[in-house]
Specification:
Distance between the termini: 68 Å
Largest sheet: 5 strands, antiparallel
Structural class: alpha+beta
Helix content: 25-40%
Strand order of the largest sheet: 4-5-10-6-7
Shape: globular
Radius of gyration: 21 Å
Number of strands: 14
Order of helices and strands: HEHEHEHEEHHHHHHEEHEEEEEEEHHH
Strand content: 15-25%
Length: 306
């Protein structure tokens, strides 16, 4: 009995290591794409690696090659604000998104989200592109980009480039539209000619954890104070981060009011598709979708008015 118990303990305490792999380091986007084209689906890009490496340690993901793209930060690490669009490089780190006052002025939802993402170690190394390409249904920045109607720029061999919406980008859980020989290079977010506000809220089991449920909201007000447009994005309540067109349609042209937020919350609860798991029951998650949608809309309207 003692021997069996000791064996079980040793099994639980055994150091987790990934399967053997080769390491390459890319110094330009073109070189990274060239390596991907040559190595095919046996290779995977790594920047921060905070999601990929734990999956490899558990043997949930196995690759023969890892291509380190940290040297691409000089090429793909930027936040550029234009009159009609914000462009963010895929290698922009969480810390840079958190600390950018210019980005927070236009889209405060980014700072809201970054404050509840993981811890300083992860935020110092993790990247926007890595978060989106992980395609975790609970991922915070995927919900933020869905809320803001962002587009993703994907570059392939011979400088081919295509732009896809967030809905097109996330094909399924942990699966994106980026092909084996392509790389996500940039995220583009439209800046609309209205007074705007945005907000993000998340319920988590402990600080920095994956969301039990999270919600983002963005509001644009016309000169009369009515809602010109509105978007809500949810995470952790379906196979992908989810935008809700029904909420947008219900809010456009309306005066912001508590009854309107309640309607949006009810739509969010009714249209989301959570599952019961260790983080909570499906009913509890629908309740959170309702409540967090109301809270973020309320905050977004307040910011738009100010």
């Amino acid at each position: 009995m003692v021997a069996e118990r000791s064996a079980r303990i040793r099994g639980r305490c055994r150091v987790q290591v990934p399967a053997p792999f080769e390491y390459e380091r890319a110094t330009s986007v073109d070189q990274a794409i060239g390596l991907l084209e040559r190595l095919g689906n046996s290779a995977r890009l790594v920047a921060g690696g905070h999601s990929l490496l734990p999956m490899m340690k558990l043997r949930l993901a196995n690759f023969e090659y890892l291509i380190d793209i940290n040297d691409l930060h000089g090429e793909l690490g930027y936040i550029r604000l234009g009159a009609g669009e914000v462009r963010i490089g895929a290698m922009t780190r969480h810390r840079e998104l958190l600390e950018s006052d210019a980005l927070a002025e236009v889209f405060p939802i980014f700072r809201d989200a970054e404050r509840v993402i993981a811890d300083p170690i992860v935020r110092n190394r993790g990247t926007l592109g890595g978060s989106l390409c992980q395609a975790d249904p609970s991922e915070d920045l995927s919900a933020v980009c869905t809320t803001l109607d962002a587009s993703c720029v994907i570059r392939g061999p011979r400088n081919t480039e295509r732009v896809v919406s967030m809905e097109e980008f996330h094909v399924g859980p942990y699966e994106t539209a980026v092909a084996d020989n392509e790389i996500l290079t940039e995220i583009r977010i439209p800046v609309k000619p209205y007074a705007s506000g945005s907000a993000y809220a998340k319920v988590e089991r402990r600080a920095g954890d994956w969301a039990v449920v999270s919600a983002g909201a963005a509001i644009w007000l016309d000169a009369a104070g009515r809602i010109a447009d509105a978007r809500v994005g949810l995470a952790a309540v379906g196979p992908n981060t989810t935008g809700i067109p029904e909420i947008s349609a219900a809010l456009r042209g309306q005066e912001p009011a508590e009854a309107l937020y309640e309607l949006a919350g009810a739509i969010a609860a009714r249209t989301c598709d959570p599952v019961t798991d260790t983080r909570g029951s499906a009913d509890y998650k629908r309740h959170l979708a309702d409540e967090l949608t109301r809270r973020t809309l309320r905050t977004a309207v307040s910011r738009a008015r100010s």
